[in-house]
């Protein structure tokens, strides 16, 4: 990471904080690199050198604040990992869902932003999901090749992405736990009568 | 429907067509009732009298063109109904997904639009899903109170809402059929070895 060597982690965190605040206040589309540079007391040249452009800078900033809980989890059971991994969705600040929805919306017409979202946000969660499933297979909790494996990543995102659209409400922990038991575990080959 | 009695179905269809074209071209937020009235050769007073406002007019226009395929389906089996009901997602015009994504995005900051989406679009699909499940229960295909029942509506929308966000691709029919077999049917209590 030579190209980033001139920024300390503290400085990087300060810049990320500015970026996130500006995007929350003004929306992704309306924030400029000039604005970010001014607020963070740096230059656009420095921002471009380190992050290549607005898409990557914003996505790294948002991800930096809050890695997906599934990445840090290892409870010893598949159900435990899933519950610990999605439970915190309920406790997201109200603005967090808005922030992500705004970024996803901007990504529909911005291919660089869409690529940054996939690479910086979606890919690590995808790897975390794979790790959780591999551990469950190794423990013998589920069959070696569960039919729903390829869908688990998007199933985990569905409650936050789809439900608010249809009901105006974000899912609570009762809902998320029931969803894991009734949808995700059966898709991974866990029988209901187990 | 006395208040609508002065518009013939043909006239209504013409107005809906104008509305949809304008929203596709300019985006929900940018289209005005004045613009719609001018294009459709009518008055804003008429539009407000019949549709109450832009949210309801736009949502009725989009829905009118294309009711959800699940509403018309009755193949005689649960799997058949689901495949017939989601298969056509694959054949949506590229702009259709964009149109809906734009409306959902606008609905995040427009409570009247969000209510119209729920009432005019989501509720009929929800009822269609209930009907499909009730028929499967009546035929004895699934248990009377399948644990995943409450999640089926959002599971059906997840592939179009979540997958493009993560992969940049819309689901094809192989994907959708595998998803029905691996996720939705097990959530409704259909055993894999059946």
Task: Write up what this structure looks like.
Chains A, B: Keywords: DNA-binding, Transcription, Transcription regulation. Two copies of one chain form a homodimer. With 194 residues, chain A is mainly α. The first copy, chain A, is built from ten helices and no strands. Chain A has helices spanning 9-26, 33-39, 44-51, 54-65, 78-86, 94-107, 111-138, 152-161, 163-167, 173-187. The longest helix of chain A has 28 residues, at 111-138. Chain A is elongated and about 55 Å long. The termini of chain A are far apart. Chains A and B meet through helix 6, helix 7, helix 8, helix 9 and helix 10 of A and helix 6, helix 7, helix 8, helix 9 and helix 10 of B.
Distance separating the two termini of chain A = 48 Å
CATH architecture identity of the largest domain in chain A = Orthogonal Bundle
Question: What level of helicity do the residues of chain A show?
Answer: 55-70%
List low-pLDDT spans of chain A: none
Oligomeric form: homodimer
CATH topology of the largest domain in chain A: Tetracycline Repressor, domain 2
How many structurally independent domains of chain A?
2
Strand content of chain A: under 5%
Strand/helix succession of chain A: HHHHHHHHHH
The largest chain-to-chain contact, stated as pair and per-chain residue counts, equals: A-B, 39 and 39 residues
Structural class of chain A: mainly alpha
Q: What is the helix tally of chain A?
A: 10
CA radius of gyration of chain A: 19 Å
Taking the sheet with the most strands of chain A, its summary is: none
* Level-1 CATH class name of the largest domain in chain A: Mainly Alpha
């Amino acid at each position: 990471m030579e190209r980033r060597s001139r920024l300390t982690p503290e400085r990087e965190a300060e810049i990320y904080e500015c970026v996130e605040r500006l995007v929350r206040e003004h929306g992704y589309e309306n924030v400029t690199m000039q604005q970010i540079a001014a607020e963070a007391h740096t230059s656009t040249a420095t921002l471009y050198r380190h992050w290549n452009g607005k898409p990557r800078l914003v996505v790294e900033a948002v991800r930096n604040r809050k890695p997906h809980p599934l990445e840090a989890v290892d409870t010893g059971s598949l159900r435990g990992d899933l519950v610990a991994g999605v439970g915190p969705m309920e406790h997201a600040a109200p603005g967090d869902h808005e922030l992500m929805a705004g970024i996803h919306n901007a990504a529909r017409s911005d291919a660089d932003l869409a690529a940054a979202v996939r690479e910086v946000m979606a890919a690590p969660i995808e790897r975390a999901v794979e790790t959780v499933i591999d551990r469950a297979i190794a423990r013998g909790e589920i069959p070696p090749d569960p039919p729903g494996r390829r869908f688990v990543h998007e199933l985990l995102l569905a409650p936050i992405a789809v439900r608010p659209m249809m009901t105006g409400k974000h899912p609570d922990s009762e809902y998320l736990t029931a969803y894991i038991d009734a949808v995700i575990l059966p898709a991974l080959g866990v029988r209901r009568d187990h």
